[in-house]
Design brief:
The chain has helices spanning 13-19, 90-98, 163-178, 247-253, and strands at 34-37, 40-43, 50-51, 57-64, 73-80, 83-84, 111-116, 122-133, 136-146, 150-159, 202-213, 219-230, 235-237, 258-265, 272-279, 286-296, 299-302, 305-309, 313-317, 321-332, 336-348, 353-368, 371-392, 394-399, 404-410, 419-422, 425-429. With 433 residues, the protein is mainly beta.
Length: 433
Amino acid sequence: MFYTFIDRTGMSWFALALIIPFSLLLSSPAGAQTTDIGGLTVTLPAPVWKKTGKGELFMLQRDFPETDKEKRGSALIQISKPISAPRNSLQAGLKTFVATLPDMVKEDPFIKHYGVTVNGHDMRVEERCCAHIKGVSVSQIVVGIAGDKRQAYLQLVQFNMRDERSQEVERDFETLVRSVKLDASDREFEIVPASGDGGIDGVFTYLDTGLRPNVFGGMDFYSDSLIRVFDNRGLFSTELPKGGRTIAEHCRENPTDCGTYDVNGGGFFSAGKIEMRSVTSDYGTIEIETQAFAKDGGDLRIGERKYRAIPPFKNGATLNGQWTYTFASSGMTATSSGSIASSRTLTLKPDGTFRRTGWHGASATNEIGGSRSGLTTTGDRAAETGRYTLSGYRLDLNHANGMTESMSIFEPDIGSDELLVINGSNYLKDKGK
């Protein structure tokens, strides 16, 4: 299905990239533009990416200079012309495309996103890191998109790229992939419910608890109030919109929090199903999951979980008390140990005033060859004061210095303010305060 791509010099594009590693070959376009590549339509990133090379692949290159902190680096985006192939051959085609970088075949993908696009095409995304070739660190992200009759493949290859530089080129690549139109009838990437979707309205929560590993080699207990925000037209979000945004506005800005849903049955006297189409990556992969669904009074049952309806705060509501969020994590290995902790306390009074304080601390020890070293640090957060307002699921802190801070808020236990979930963190009410 694929071949090693050769340019006019008789060398593979990859060999050429190593010999002339970080050159700028062609001038940039006037600006981001839509380009047709053998019937595949994509929107190109900003002009800092230069079109380069000739042959079977459409290629863009971006170079980064050497600095005091970073080696000289480069990134290549490559896009194949669509080929005629059945949909079920996508996995095999992706494997072949990965092999255009032979050293990457040995690496297992450490991130995988499998799903469909907004246009119903199958999509597979695999990320691999890192091969070292002639002293150059190389990573690869490969994307395959397949319709019923055609497929296309894209990849981002990075040379000596890390941290902010790597994040920047990956964002450009993600945006480019979301813009791909495999067929002329394809629409732009947008989270839009289908006709007949919807039927649920409100905010619901489910308590999820358990243990998970931490960076110190230990285990942390977690207790998360998982959120589902539904609007009646067919959108859902796993996060409360902040700053007064609607769910539609939130989903445009944060697509991986969101998706669309369709309910069939599930009334008070009948079993039903809910199909949830979640955006699972910034490349635009959508995973579809169908679960049992039922209404239980004002609550919902989705699969095995019961989601409780969460009422909003009335406009101008006030609270009275002191709530504290605490985080702690620790662990040890044969030669090291570490811990970190932090706390934030928020006091809200009936007169509409607030006060916020906090502290943090960390420690670490290492033992190498019988020699032990350690570090301990602590610090207090300066007190902040001002006035607050509550409305719906929104808490605004109007600081004394004129700054306004907007956060999401809800009470997971109906009729009780013993626990507040603020911006996703659990704040427990201090007894007697």
